[in-house]
Every structure is written in structure tokens, then in C-alpha cells.
């Protein structure tokens, strides 16, 4: 049914100049940006119920996007290659017919918006048609594209962004600023803190050398880029979304503090884990058990934000990449320990890794790519967490109400897990993940075990 989505128009949206002069039209990259040069675009999909005419929706979205790009102007640029130095940079200058953000308008009479919004199962083939294609395999490459698709009873906003330009902590404020601008009928949003684009705030003395080394490893044949988005057979992976309520999260945190992994249930309880740690540990152990492997190792991989962890701290308003990869290998036997011991072991392992990896965030950055390549072959036990419940994309009200559903389309490989905030639970978490169908069936039972009719005893972790 995905073929029923028809493109009606494609145009380009240029930024409206602001009163502030842009500091430069050529923006250098940090090694934190270059790390993502060959990774496929980040794709977010937001669903909205609305009876508004599609033409008026599109007009409002395009005009407000133009105003918002006036502030977040690098997204309207291109990733380019310097002929002189061989280094990558973001070209924010105007003058080409392909400048700006590609904006695609589409419609469908056959797809059922309500089904896509409410079904816990992902209709991934349709999702892919609702986000814009954006090729990054040759330089210069676009940094952002938008696709708006009209349905009976609503529309979707699909956004594709090159990861070189932003991380999740940058993309989400942009989407929410765009929504606020649209909701206010085009008035530019006054940000609480001026956006910072200068990569010099990262402040690594060997930035240029590290960027060049990364580029040589990822893209030795530039301007061709060896783009990868984790090729896989979509038919072999099932995808589902779960809501973990505030009450469930509190129960997990309580279990994590009941006793240490050696079974010492003393009166002195340690500090409860963060929401991320508790949810990630529960998902990791359930996925490991669902894979039915009783020996070997399992690797958990996620990104940690470094803005507040470097010295001096990088402003939260920094618009770029400021995350580093964290990964840990643990024995399957430890993760499968019963009576909640595996869960508590996972919590301890994640907390320890975050502390070690972020105490000196950029330590060993010259070897990050080699470290990543070393763990990727071990895909059979690989679990990849992305997103955050703190991004708050369910607050992105463009004037037609909050999104009815938000999904991360670009991560669907076996073992991929994405966190969002929960739409109707301020302290809850939306979790979307991908597993082979036979593993997904087992995971659902394990993950939801004890959630129905959750009482004071909380989960019954195996």
C-alpha cells in the first residue's frame, strides 16, 4: 500500500535572513561531526490528526520553516569538500539552484492514518515512504530534507537530516522551534539562549588531524562517500513500540536498589539509577534472553551527550554534534541471572561505563573509529540504543495539536532500540525496537511480564 503515496510537488525552502549577520558562510567541522560522515541520515516522522486542508498546512509549514532556517541556517547548506585542503565543511552560502531545503508534498487516499498512529506494530515500508530520500553518498551532499504527506484526517511531517550537521540534542530544539514559529503564524521564535554553531568550542588541539584520519577511514574515495545505513532485509525484522509508564519506571528503579548483584540486601540502599539506565538495562536483558543464547557475550552501544562533561562545558545551545559512543560487553550468563540479578548487573554495568567514558570525554578519540569497527562484527549479540526521552518531540505543536505519534524511522536493524518521551505520560518513555519476529514474540512476553495490573510489588523479573 506504500505505492499509494503520490508526490504532488517538490520545491526548495530558503532561509529568511535575520537581523543578525551570520558569522560565516563556511563552517568548519569538528571530529565529532566527521565521525558521522558515512552514516545514513537521521529520519524522524511525526503524525498529526487534523481536518485542516493540506494546502494551508503546507503553506504554513513552508513559510515557518523558512523563518526558522534564518536562525538555524547551517541546515539549509551542504556538506562540501575543500579542493585545497581536502577537508569537509558546511557551505552555508547562497547562489546555487539547489540551495536550501528540499520540501516534498505528497498525498494518499488509501493509507489509513489512524492505523499508522495507533498500531503498536510498525508499518516500516510505509514509514520509509513518508520520510524524504536524501542521498549522502557523493559530495556536496544536502543536510536536510522535509516531506509532508496528506491523509484523510491528518498529515505527517517527515524530516531527514545528515548526522554530520547535528545530534539529537540539536535536532529536537530545531523541530520544536519550527513548530512554535508555525503555531505563532510565522513570528520568529525568541530563543532563551543564542544558538552556537562555532565548532571551535569543542576545543581539541588535534581536531584537523583527527578529522582527516576519520575521513580517510570512512571515505577514502571522496568525493564519493561510502555511505552506510546498516543494510538488512526488512522482511526479516519485526518492529514494535511500547509505552513504559512512570509507575513502571519507578518499579524498575526500586528493584535496582533492592540488593546488590551478590545478593546483599542490607539496609543501606544505593542511589536509584536514571530513567535511561533502568529502561536500557531492562530492554538489554530482555533482548538477550529472547535471543535464547546461553553463552557468549552481548554488546550494548549508545551515545552519551558530552556538553556538560567537558572542561570548560560546551553550551547546551551548541548546534552540532557533541556525543560520544559508549559500549560495553557483558557475558550472557551475567545478563540472564534470575530473580532480578541480571537486571541489576546490567544497571551497574551501564552506570560504570557512562562514568568511565565521560570522565574525560575526548580521551582516546583518535582511536574511536577503530574501536567501533572492532565491535560491529559481533552483531549476533549487539543492542544499539538511540534517542532520548528528554528530547520532547511530542511537544512539537505546529498549530494543529501535539503529534499523535513520533517515530525514528532510520534505525530498524536487529537489536536497534529507540527512546522517546511518552505522549500522555510526563515521566514515561516510549520505546521502539526491532528484532526478528521469533525473537520479538519472546521479548514481548519478557518485557511486559508483570506490567499488566502492576501493583506495589512491581515487575516480576525473571
UniProtKB/TrEMBL annotation:
<dbReference type="InterPro" id="IPR023213">
    <property type="entry name" value="CAT-like_dom_sf"/>
</dbReference>
<dbReference type="Pfam" id="PF02458">
    <property type="entry name" value="Transferase"/>
</dbReference>
<dbReference type="GO" id="GO:0016747">
    <property type="term" value="F:acyltransferase activity, transferring groups other than amino-acyl groups"/>
</dbReference>
<dbReference type="InterPro" id="IPR051504">
    <property type="entry name" value="Plant_metabolite_acyltrans"/>
</dbReference>
<keyword id="KW-0808">Transferase</keyword>
<protein>
    <submittedName>
        <fullName>Phenolic glucoside malonyltransferase 1</fullName>
    </submittedName>
</protein>
<keyword id="KW-0012">Acyltransferase</keyword>
Amino acid at each position: 500500500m506504500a505505492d499509494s503515496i503520490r508526490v504532488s510537488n517538490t520545491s526548495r525552502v530558503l532561509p529568511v535572513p535575520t537581523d543578525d549577520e551570520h558569522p560565516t558562510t563556511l563552517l568548519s567541522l569538528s571530529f565529532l561531526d566527521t565521525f558521522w560522515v558515512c552514516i545514513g541520515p537521521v529520519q524522524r516522522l511525526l503524525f498529526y490528526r487534523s481536518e485542516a486542508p493540506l494546502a494551508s498546512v503546507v503553506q504554513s509549514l513552508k513559510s515557518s520553516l523558512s523563518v526558522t532556517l534564518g536562525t538555524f541556517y547551517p541546515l539549509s547548506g551542504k556538506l562540501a569538500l575543500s579542493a585545497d585542503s581536502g577537508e569537509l565543511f558546511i557551505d552555508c552560502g547562497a547562489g546555487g539552484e539547489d540551495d536550501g531545503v528540499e520540501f516534498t508534498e505528497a498525498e494518499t487516499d488509501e493509507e489509513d492514518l489512524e492505523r499508522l498512529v495507533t498500531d503498536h506494530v510498525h508499518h516500516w515500508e510505509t514509514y520509509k515512504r513518508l520520510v524524504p530520500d536524501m542521498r549522502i553518498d557523493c559530495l556536496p551532499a544536502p543536510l536536510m530534507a522535509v516531506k509532508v504527506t496528506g491523509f484523510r484526517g491528518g498529515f505527517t511531517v517527515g524530516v531527514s537530516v545528515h548526522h554530520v550537521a547535528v545530534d539529537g540534542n540539536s535536532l529536537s530544539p530545531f523541530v520544536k522551534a519550527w513548530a512554535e514559529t508555525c503555531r505563532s503564524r510565522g513570528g520568529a521564535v525568541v530563543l532563551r539562549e543564542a544558538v552556537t554553531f562555532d565548532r571551535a568550542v569543542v576545543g581539541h588541539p588535534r581536531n584537523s588531524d583527527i578529522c582527516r584520519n576519520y575521513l580517510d577511514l570512512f571515505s577514502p574515495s571522496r568525493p564519493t562517500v561510502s555511505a552506510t545505513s546498516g543494510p538488512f532485509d526488512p522482511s526479516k525484522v519485526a518492529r514494535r513500540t511500547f509505552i513504559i509508564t512512570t509507575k513502571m519506571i519507578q518499579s524498575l528503579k526500586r528493584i535496582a536498589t533492592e540488593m546488590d548483584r551478590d545478593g546483599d540486601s542490607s539496609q543501606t540502599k544505593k542511589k536509584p539509577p536514571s530513567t535511561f539506565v533502568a529502561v536500557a538495562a531492562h530492554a538489554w536483558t530482555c533482548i538477550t534472553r529472547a535471543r535464547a543464547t546461553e553463552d557468549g557475550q552481548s554488546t550494548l552501544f549508545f551515545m552519551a551527550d558530552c556538553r556538560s562533561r567537558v572542561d570548560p562545558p560546551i553550551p547546551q545551545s551548541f548546534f552540532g554534534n557533541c556525543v560520544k559512543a559508549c559500549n560495553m560487553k557483558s557475558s550472557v550468563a551475567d545478563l540472564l541471572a534470575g530473580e532480578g540479578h541480571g537486571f541489576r548487573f546490567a544497571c551497574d554495568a551501564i552506570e560504570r561505563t557512562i562514568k568511565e567514558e565521560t570522565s574525560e570525554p575526548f580521551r582516546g578519540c583518535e582511536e574511536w573509529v577503530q574501536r567501533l569497527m572492532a565491535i560491529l562484527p559481533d552483531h549476533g549479540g549487539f543492542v544499539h540504543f538511540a534517542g532520548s526521552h528528554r528530547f520532547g518531540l511530542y511537544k512539537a505543536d505546529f498549530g494543529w495539536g501535539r503529534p499523535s505519534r513520533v517515530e525514528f524511522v532510520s534505525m530498524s536493524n536487529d537489536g536497534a532500540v529507540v527512546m522517546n518521551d511518552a505522549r500522555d505520560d510526563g515521566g514515561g518513555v516510549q520505546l521502539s525496537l526491532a528484532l526478528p519476529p521469533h525473537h520479538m514474540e519472546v521479548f514481548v512476553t519478557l518485557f511486559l511480564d508483570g506490567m499488566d495490573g502492576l501493583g506495589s510489588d512491581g515487575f516480576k523479573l525473571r
